[in-house]
Design goal:
Blueprint lengths: L1 H26 L3 H7 L4 H5 L7 E5 L3 H17 L4 E6 L2 H10 L5 E4 L5 H11 L3 E5 L5 H9 L3 E7 L3 H9 L1 H7 L5 E4 L2 H9 L7 E3 L4 H8 L2 H10 L7 E8 L3 H15 L3 E7 L5 H10 L5 E3 H5 L9 E3 L6 H5 L2 E6 L12 H5 L4 E3 L7 H9 L3 E3 L3 H12 L2 H17 L3 H11 L2
Parallel strand pairs: 1-2, 1-4, 2-3, 4-5, 5-6, 6-7, 8-9, 8-12, 9-11, 10-11, 12-13, 13-14
Helix pairs in contact: 4-5, 4-11, 4-21, 6-7, 13-19
Length: 429
């Protein structure tokens, strides 16, 4: 099984490597992380670690970092003597981690799953426990951990419907890989059942909840809202339609809806936050093609340009979406009117906002069910339904506020998972 996996891995590397090299050369993307993923520069970063025990926590990107932050905070509170090594796979995740993970002693990039590379990295890190956040299973990495007698845990585990279908097709591989995982704390019973179905021993699975609720609840504060209000020179009477984590095809829908909303609410402003900030220029082009020239990019505001009431703000900076949700009168969450599985709707709910989204919410089905149960989340199937839904809510601000508060209460009702995950980790030290 492992021989077959490594043959496939080698073949894939030969095909994919030229793409990444061209990206590095022409755009600079991956330049900071690629060498480290092969083990370069990591020794100097890890050299500063002197103490034991050590825990290596891995979060793939921004979403996983959000879940990891309260777990790390709770872990350090319970065991301040522990040295935390924190890794991500993406550069955006690394930026986010350095902002929000306050208890880590070292930040590194997760190595490519090549036996020689992972063996070297695992030896350098010399961790007692390895913790992966959500679900990213790397066979060679887990196998080397097992050989070195390093305990391996999954926390905030989730398996989306799309991932579940892929895992089931290659179940013959994952059944063996999961034997190298010591324990898995899962978000929900559905996730636990899926993990068991692809080969995990049910005795090593427990439902412990979603740590993202803890992270979001702790981040919400008047100070955070005041900071973004001051930075963007927001007037007290300004109202915003915030479209967060949008994907190609959705910005055009949002712009069309906004144009129609202006007919009834001429003072309404738009904040557009593309899921991938490198698309910000493309989003600005779409706005101009639609006749919206009165716009400003957040990078320019951060660079010292003052916002003077521009109708549209395009957010082209990582890690700012959560703050902008605090300014919203109403929210659309992207990746859902196009088949992308949805994005995190809890962030807006934590601020007490009503959220609209499309039917593609497979990756956040549990969150969707919770918020729709209290009227805070609303599914729309088209541009027309989105316009109708927002228009109806803006006409009834008291109802909108009441729905939003119910969503915020749902987030608060589900806090506590990060402490349970911290307890799990400490049991394996």
């Amino acid at each position: 099984m492992y021989i077959l996996y490594n043959i496939i891995l080698f073949a894939a590397a030969l095909i994919i490597a030229p793409y990444f090299l061209l990206k590095i050369f022409f755009t600079g993307k991956y330049r900071n992380s690629f060498r480290q993923k092969l083990g370069g520069k990591q020794e100097s970063i890890l050299a500063g670690l002197k103490k034991k025990p050590r825990i290596w926590i891995h979060a793939v990107s921004v979403g996983e970092v959000t879940a990891a932050a309260p777990i790390v905070a709770s872990l350090k509170k319970k065991r301040p003597d522990v040295e935390v090594i924190f890794s991500t796979s993406t550069e955006t995740g690394q930026e986010m981690a350095k902002k929000f993970i306050t208890g880590a002693s070292a930040f590194i990039y997760f190595p490519l799953d090549v036996l020689s590379v992972v063996a070297r990295m695992i030896k350098m890190a010399d961790a007692d426990v390895f913790v992966l956040v959500e679900t990213e299973l790397w066979p060679n990495f887990l196998k080397v951990c097992r050989k070195r007698r390093i305990k391996t845990l999954m926390v905030n585990g989730r398996i989306s419907p799309r991932s579940y279908r892929r895992y089931r097709l290659t179940k013959f591989l994952w059944k063996g890989v999961l034997k190298d995982l010591d324990f898995a704390g899962m978000i929900s019973s559905i996730d636990a059942t899926r993990l068991e179905d692809i080969g995990m021993d049910p005795a090593k699975i427990k439902v412990l909840g979603n740590a993202k609720y803890d992270g979001l609840a702790s981040l919400v504060s008047p100070a955070l809202q005041q900071e973004i209000t001051r930075r963007c020179n927001v007037r007290a009477d300004e109202k915003f339609f915030v479209a967060g984590s949008t994907h190609p095809g959705e910005e055009k829908i949002v712009i069309n809806v906004y144009r129609e909303l202006l007919k009834t609410y001429p003072d309404l402003k738009l904040i557009l936050v593309p899921r991938h900030i490198e698309r910000a220029g493309e989003v600005c082009d779409l706005l101009q093609q639609s006749g919206f020239y009165d716009m400003i990019m957040l990078s320019r505001i951060n660079g010292g340009q003052q916002r003077n009431g521009e109708s549209v703000i395009v957010v082209d900076v990582i890690g700012e979406l959560f703050k902008f949700y605090s300014l919203a009168s109403v929210v659309y969450c992207g990746g859902s009117l196009v088949p992308r599985g949805g994005q995190n709707i809890l962030e807006a709910a934590a601020w007490g906002k009503v959220i609209f989204y499309g039917p593609s919410m497979e990756d956040f089905s549990a969150e969707k069910d919770l918020l729709e149960g209290v009227g805070c989340g609303i599914t729309v199937g088209s541009e027309e339904e989105l316009l109708k839904g927002i228009t109806g809510l803006l006409a009834h601000p008291e109802e909108m506020k009441a729905r939003g508060e119910k969503g915020k209460a749902v987030v608060l009702d589900h806090i506590g998972a990060s402490s349970r995950y911290a307890d799990l980790i400490t049991r394996y030290l």
